């Protein structure tokens, strides 16, 4: 898909992957609509990218958000939250928040904006998932589940839209990314490997996915191996996880 002149809506655009994607899309010539809850950070990103700011919570009324954004050519569902710790200790309110932000909100916003793409006969939807959704990560059970839900939703949507070949659906599965995500979830990233990658690397993958119509992108690419191993040989996969974490 041609990005020069395309109107692109990015959720969670105030920092991390969202802000890096805004900069990458601006470099590609896209016209940006940036949404998030932090006005000051959004306006700082908008100043860099000539984007338009909509301060909104994605768990709110997505029809109103879609109306404010106007017709869009590309929707990047990036907003997300996390929580780390044993599932039995997870507060019910946090469980509900993760499901609402990570899974329900992208579905609802897609439902609000997809009819316009269908009417226009073109468009692209990106879901920023996670390797956690492909393999499951201990002490991140609900986060993993919400990202897995996005992956299956995107695949089903892709199948539904086969009759509209100019509407693309992409999932991007990053590994560990150096963003404020870990600080906000309440637990720092404590492993020595794999090392966090810069958000700009994920942003480049998102731009490429839209331009080239890629249905699935792992960032970095080697993450495809554990994802495939879990599906093909779950027993050996679990033994490796027990050994290496």
Describe this structure in words.
The protein has 10 helices and 7 strands. The chain is α/β, with parallel strands linked by helices and 245 residues long. The protein has a single domain (7-244), classed as NAD(P)-binding Rossmann-like Domain (Rossmann fold). A 7-stranded parallel beta sheet has the order 3-2-1-4-5-6-7, sandwiched between helices.
Key features?
seven-stranded parallel β-sheet, 10 helices, 51% helix, alpha/beta, 245 residues, Rossmann fold, single chain
Order of helices and strands: EHEHEHEHEHHEHHEHH
**Oligomeric status of the shown chains?**
single chain
Find the CATH topology.
Rossmann fold
| Order of neighbouring strands in the sheet with most strands | 3-2-1-4-5-6-7
Query: Radius of gyration from the CA trace?
Result: 17 Å
Judging by the overall fold, what is the CATH architecture? 3-Layer(aba) Sandwich
Mean pLDDT: 94
User: What is the total tally of β strands?
Assistant: 7
The share of residues in extended strands comes to: 15-25%
Structural class: alpha/beta
Shape: globular
Number of helices: 10
How many domains is the backbone divided into? 1
Helix content: 40-55%
Instruction: Outline the low-pLDDT stretches.
Output: none
Ends apart, CA distance between termini: 39 Å
Most strands sheet:
7 strands, parallel
**CATH domain class name:** Alpha Beta
CATH H-level superfamily: NAD(P)-binding Rossmann-like Domain
